[in-house]
């Protein structure tokens, strides 16, 4: 991997979810993140970091404690992190309208594009699709 790639919150969540229900996705997400760390090509946004923290500390069957979740978020601070502005929200609204995806997914696409990423790793959108010039990829998809 040489191009910048964007990682959605669901990938981070699976990488740190040790529950039996997430075992297969956990391994794939962990491998992907390990590769991105080695290549130094991973990117995230403030939205991704916030969503990770919120879900892993409140919605998991066995929530992560606040300090552990904070440490994970802190680990991704060295990556390029997009901080959306009001202009980015307006662009995301246009992506939402044009592509009929949620505003939250549209903001992920906008953040990836703003960081110059050629790909978004997520399970939230259709793999193979290109939105806003960014290809969608799913590390859990067969093939």
Overview of this protein structure:
- The chain is an alpha/beta fold and 143 residues long.
- It is built from six helices and six strands.
- It has a single domain (5-137), classed as Rossmann fold, CATH 3.40.50.1010.
- It has helices spanning 9-16, 23-39, 46-58, 66-75, 86-99, 103-114; strands spanning 5-7, 42-45, 81-82, 119-121, 130-131, 134-137.
- A six-stranded mixed beta sheet has the order 3-2-1-4-6-5.
- A hairpin with a 2-residue loop joins β5 (130-131) and β6 (134-137).
- The longest helix is centred in the first third of the chain and has 17 residues, at 23-39.
- The mean pLDDT is 95.
CATH superfamily name? 5'-nuclease
Overall shape: it is globular
> What structural class do the secondary elements suggest?
alpha/beta
Query: How many beta-strand segments?
Result: 6
Say what the CATH topology is: Rossmann fold
Percent of residues in beta strands: 5-15%
N→C terminal distance: 18 Å
Main beta-sheet strand count, sense and barrel state: 6 strands, mixed
Provide a count of the helices. Answer: 6
Number of domains: 1
The CATH C-level name is: Alpha Beta
Residue stretches low in confidence (pLDDT < 50, at least 5 long) are none
Q: What is the name of the CATH architecture? A: 3-Layer(aba) Sandwich
Helix and strand string, N-terminal first?
Answer: EHHEHHEHHEEE
Strand order of the largest sheet: 3-2-1-4-6-5
Task: Give helix % range.
Answer: 40-55%
Radius of gyration based on Cα positions: 15 Å
Mean pLDDT: 95
């Amino acid at each position: 991997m040489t191009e910048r790639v964007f990682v959605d919150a669901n990938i981070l969540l699976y990488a740190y979810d040790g529950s039996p229900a997430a075992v297969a996705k956990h391994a794939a997400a962990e491998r992907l993140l390990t590769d991105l760390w080695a290549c130094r090509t991973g990117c995230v946004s403030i939205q991704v970091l916030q969503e990770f923290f919120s879900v892993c500390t409140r919605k998991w069957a066995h929530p992560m404690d606040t300090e552990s979740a904070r440490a994970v978020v802190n680990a991704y601070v060295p990556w390029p992190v997009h901080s959306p502005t009001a202009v980015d929200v307006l662009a995301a609204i246009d992506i939402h309208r044009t592509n009929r995806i949620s505003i939250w997914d549209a903001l992920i696409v906008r953040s990836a594009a703003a960081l110059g990423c050629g790909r978004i790793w997520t399970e939230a959108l259709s793999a193979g699709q290109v939105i806003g010039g960014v290809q969608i990829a799913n590390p859990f998809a067969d093939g």
